[in-house]
Each structure stands twice: as structure tokens, then as C-alpha cells.
Write a structure and sequence with these properties.
With about 325 residues, the protein is of the alpha/beta class. It has 13 helices and 6 strands. Strand 5, helix 10 and strand 6 form a beta-alpha-beta unit. This is Nicotinate-nucleotide--dimethylbenzimidazole phosphoribosyltransferase. Belongs to the CobT family. Pathway: Nucleoside biosynthesis; alpha-ribazole biosynthesis; alpha-ribazole from 5,6-dimethylbenzimidazole: step 1/2.
């Protein structure tokens, strides 16, 4: 299918290669979807929310209660990703994988709480192996629902105060990096705050970071929402649904998932380079060159949502442009 898409690009009314990366995007999407006419109009954005016990170590600029409060804001339509989903005409699904505060039933929020947040990774494994598998399964089910709904492009997002600490610990373990090279301000820590956060991550790594098995790393250092994202990405690949990867946290989930199954890499598009400094190392390890660099560091799938129209334009051009022959435009000199 990639060969056919490449052949089509060669006869469209433009100098060969002049649409640059948009041409390669259309070719890749055609191969991923196994469609002559790739179509990413049906977009589903799934936000996985979860809390982190490591917040007890004072590693975020915001209080833990914000996670559940933002879940309510997603449902009410007031969050950045709510606005972007409406703007794109995309489905928005919100899944509570385990906030500290339980919530009343909110319309548009799936309650799949595994627990009241993870344990503090500086002191204990984030979760049991059973909880880790349950988290992966939450994502696998989200991917299956997307497949059932005929979704053409999956955007995974996350919300979890403290999750840059968890994600940085996972990335440090998987990349065998010093946490000082990957730790950043997250929601907005001061430089002293970042130094303290680095030490907390170092403690977590000393405790659980020796075993590099990806499932062990996800269970001991990950989060319910991070692990659910890893499961969702793997599920999307199984259903042949291309995925547009958001920022730092989703990329770390993608890295862990690729360690579990390297073939996943072929299904991933990378939307943007987040302002979180560790993102570049994670992107590098995935051999990913993101489409955009807008200094965004919000999460919620917002960076991916911003890049959706690029993929849609690439498909439209591929599917609708005239060929030299059909338009009567001369091409050999
Ligand atoms: O996506 C990113 O690159 C990104 C970078 C920094 C922060 N975030 C968001 O901020 C929250 C985590 O930040 P923190 O400081 O509480 O660890 C979480 O809800 C993420 O969605 C997201
Ligand atoms: C308000 C707020 C919104 C967020 N969205 C994702 N992470 C977030 C963190 C905060 C603090």
C-alpha cells in the first residue's frame, strides 16, 4: 500500500517532493490504514487521568486535588482539550484510572478507578503487578472501543498532578539516564524545586530502577494513566489505528510500550516537542521527529490535537489532487 501511495504522490500536480513531509505522512497513513485513500477525519481523543502518591514529596507546582477537578472540567467542556476537541469535531472520552478523590458520576467520564492513586514511588512500588495489568487493560479496552467506532486516528492524552515525576523516573530507568538530564519543571517548579524533584526521582530509581524489564518499570515507577496509555497504544496498533502521540508523558508511555512490542513504532506519529526538557531524549530514543514545536507543555493531548489538521490536510491532498494526466498539465520536458 505504501508503494501505491508513493506512486500516486509522483503523479499529482506538483513538483515531486514539493509537499515535503505531508507526502510522507499520507504514504504512511495509507500503509497504516491499508487504504488507497487514507482518512483521519474520525478522530477520538481519550484522556486518561490518575493520581500519584509521589505528590507527598512536594514535586509539583500544583496540589493533587487538581487532577480530579480537571476531570470535572474536561466533562464540563471548559478545559483546553475540551475546546480543541469541539474545534476539531473529535470525540472526547475521559477515563478516570484512579484519582485520590472519588467523584460523583459525571456525564462523559468513564469510572475505571484502579485505586486511590498510586503509592509514593520514593518509598514503594507505584502499584502491584496486578494493578499494572489492569491499567494496561483499561487502555486496551479504549482502543477496542475506538476500533468498534470506526475511528481513523487515536489521540491519547493524560491528566495527573505529579505525573512528570513518574514519567521521568520511567524514562530514566528505560534509557539508563541520570535523572538530572531528564527532570524538568512540569507544571512550573522553580529551579530549586526541579533539584528537589531530581533527588526524589533518584531515590525512586535506587529503590526500583535496577530491573529494566518494561513491565517492572511501569509497575514500580509508572502511573495508572501512563500504563493505560501504553496499553491503549498497543491496542491501537493491533487494530491498525494510527496514533498521534502528544507530549512528554504520552511519549514515555510510548517508549515503554515500544519496549514491550517494538512493532508498535510503525503506528505512531509524533505531534510536538514539549517544553518539558526530557522530551527530546525520549523522542530521540524513539527515533521520532515531531511535527511541531510550539513550547506547549500542557498535556491533555492538546499538542496532538493541534497537529491533527496537518494529518487531515495530508490525506485530503493525497486523495483529492488532480494528476498531471487528468488535469492536462505537462510534466516531461
Ligand atoms: O505533555 C507534556 O509535555 C507535559 C509537560 C508538563 C506537564 N504536563 C501536565 O502537567 C501535569 C504534570 O505536571 P507535574 O508538575 O504535576 O508533574 C500533568 O497533568 C500533565 O498533563 C504535561
Ligand atoms: C490547571 C491544570 C490543567 C492541566 N492539564 C493537564 N495538566 C494540568 C495541570 C494543571 C495545573
Amino acid at each position: 500500500m505504501a508503494e501505491r501511495a508513493r506512486a500516486r504522490q509522483a503523479v499529482l500536480t506538483k513538483p515531486p517532493g514539493s509537499l515535503g513531509r505531508l507526502e510522507r505522512l499520507a504514504i504512511t497513513l495509507s500503509a497504516q490504514q491499508q487504504r488507497e485513500q487514507p482518512d483521519v477525519d474520525a478522530v477520538r481523543i481519550v484522556i486518561f487521568a490518575g493520581d500519584h502518591g509521589v505528590c507527598a514529596e512536594n514535586i509539583s507546582a500544583f496540589p493533587q486535588a487538581v487532577t480530579a477537578q480537571m476531570v470535572a472540567n474536561f466533562a464540563a467542556g471548559g478545559a483546553a482539550i475540551s475546546v480543541l476537541a469541539r474545534h476539531l469535531g473529535a470525540d472526547l472520552e475521559v477515563i478516570n484510572t484512579g484519582t485520590v478523590t472519588a467523584q460523583p458520576l459525571l456525564p462523559g467520564v468513564l469510572d475505571e478507578r484502579i485505586g486511590a492513586g498510586t503509592a509514593n514511588i520514593a518509598q514503594a512500588p507505584a502499584m502491584t503487578r496486578t494493578q499494572c495489568e489492569a491499567a494496561l487493560e483499561i487502555g486496551v479496552r479504549a482502543a477496542a472501543r475506538a476500533a468498534q467506532a470506526g475511528i481513523g486516528l487515536f489521540v491519547g492524552g493524560e491528566m495527573g498532578i505529579g505525573n512528570t515525576t513518574s514519567a521521568t523516573a520511567v524514562a530514566s530507568a528505560l534509557l539508563d539516564s541520570d535523572p538530572a538530564a531528564l527532570t524538568g519543571p512540569g507544571t512550573g517548579l522553580s529551579p530549586t524545586g526541579v533539584m528537589h524533584k531530581t533527588e526524589v526521582i533518584r531515590r525512586a530509581l535506587q529503590r526500583h530502577g535496577q530491573d529494566k524489564d518494561p513491565l517492572h518499570v511501569l509497575a514500580s515507577l509508572g502511573g495508572f494513566e501512563i500504563n493505560a496509555l501504553a496499553g491503549a497504544l498497543l491496542g491501537c496498533a493491533q487494530h491498525r489505528i494510527p496514533v498521534l502521540v502528544d507530549g512528554f508523558i504520552v511519549s514515555v508511555a510510548a517508549l515503554a510500550a515500544c519496549r514491550l512490542q517494538p512493532a508498535l513504532r510503525d503506528w505512531l506519529h509524533f505531534a510536538h516537542r514539549s517544553g518539558e526538557p526530557g522530551h527530546s531524549a525520549v523522542l530521540g530514543a524513539l527515533d521520532a521527529d515531531p511535527l511541531l514545536e510550539l513550547d506547549m507543555r500542557l498535556g491533555e493531548g492538546s499538542g496532538a490535537a493541534i497537529a491533527v489538521p496537518l494529518l487531515q490536510a495530508a490525506c485530503r491532498l493525497h486523495n483529492q489532487m488532480a494528476s498531471f494526466d487528468s488535469a492536462g498539465v505537462s510534466h516531461d520536458s
